Amino acid sequence: MKKCMVLILSIFYLGVMPSEAQEFNWYKGNTHCHTLNSDGDSYPRQVIRWYRDHEYNFLFITDHNIITEIKYLDTDPDDDFLLIQGEEVTDSYQGIPVHLNALNSQIHIEPQHGDSVIETLQNNADAILEAGAVPQINHPNWRWSFTDKEISQTKGVHLFELYNAHPDCNNFSAGGRPGMEDIWDKILSKGILMYGIASDDAHDYVGEFTPRKSNPGTGWIMVKARELSTEAIMDAIQKGQFFSTLGVLLKDICITQTQYRIDIKPYKDAAYTTTFIGQDGVILKEVYGTTAEYTFNGNELYVRARIVESSGRIACTQPVFLSKD
């Protein structure tokens, strides 16, 4: 496997240079799902079995306002499946949903409330950080809850759901409303580093799978990490060493001092368009085929990429910010 990793320190925010001696692998995982402990329709072991049977490598169980303890659910340290504890801190402001995942949380975190959406977001993010967990802002477009205005004023958060597969989430732009990529570009264009997560937010594991149900397996992330451990997965997620997908798979993402390169894993005879996107959502370059390259010209604030498959499935890679030094 190539050892070219995302976020090189000399030109990108919050980056590290991985050792060339280290081997890295891709791991499939989901950061957001529910069980019968909150509003899912299946017991935790049934939920875990579904993800294991469908070749996921790791899973966060994030029930609403409760910790579903994993110590009795993940008892084999030598298998190829990793459970990471979490919680969806479920709050609201004047009926507006304000939900954040606490990733790798070891303790229950109560909703903190606030006198505005921004304050509610910040109070909950602060509580998650204080507990030693990592905050992830969930489904901003669920019921059109909030946009870049609120997210960009929230400190200490670098993860948000770019795509949430719950049928009530408004992921794409329509009717004059901004989609989640529009919101993402507005945040990034303010110089704020934010990584976009895809999740299935699964609740419905039993019975018929339909577009009107919150079924598992629709959106996930592929994390590039040195090993399948909580420490390695959490480290990679926080550094943006992952891509988000609705089914498109990538062989590798390689970013150097001069170039952003993506190698796509083709599916049968599908065709692919990769769009490199910069400040204010401007299209920097479009490339056809299974290999896409963009050469930095030095004037970009940031560069990210969207890959569209002819089936309609998409994937998004994470933004990199170019230093102006």
The top-level CATH class of the largest domain is Alpha Beta
From the alpha carbons, calculate the radius of gyration and give it in angstroms: 19 Å
β-sheet strand percentage = 25-35%
Q: How would you sum up the major sheet?
A: 12 strands, mixed
User: What is the total domain count?
Assistant: 2
The end-to-end distance, rounded to whole angstroms, is: 32 Å
Tally the beta strands.
17
Q: What's the mean pLDDT score?
A: 93
Helix content: 10-25%
Number of helices: 5
The CATH topology label of the largest domain is: TIM Barrel
CATH superfamily of the largest domain: Metal-dependent hydrolases
Helices and strands: which structural class?
alpha+beta
Shape: globular
Uncertain parts: 5-21
List the helices and strands in order.
Answer: EHEEEHEHEHEEHEEEEEEEEE
CATH architecture identity of the largest domain: Alpha-Beta Barrel
Describe the protein in words.
The protein folds into two domains: 222 residues, Alpha-Beta Barrel (TIM Barrel), CATH 3.20.20.140; 73 residues, Sandwich (Immunoglobulin-like). Helices cover 14% and strands 31% of the residues. The chain starts with 24 loop residues before the first strand and ends with a strand. It is built from five helices and 17 strands. By secondary structure, the protein is of the alpha+beta class. A hairpin with a 2-residue loop joins strand 3 and strand 4. The radius of gyration is 19 Å and the shape is globular. The strands form three sheets. Strands 1, 2, 3, 4, 5, 8, 9, 12, 13, 15, 16 and 17 form a twelve-stranded mixed sheet that branches. A three-stranded antiparallel sheet has the order 10-11-14, with no helix packed on it.
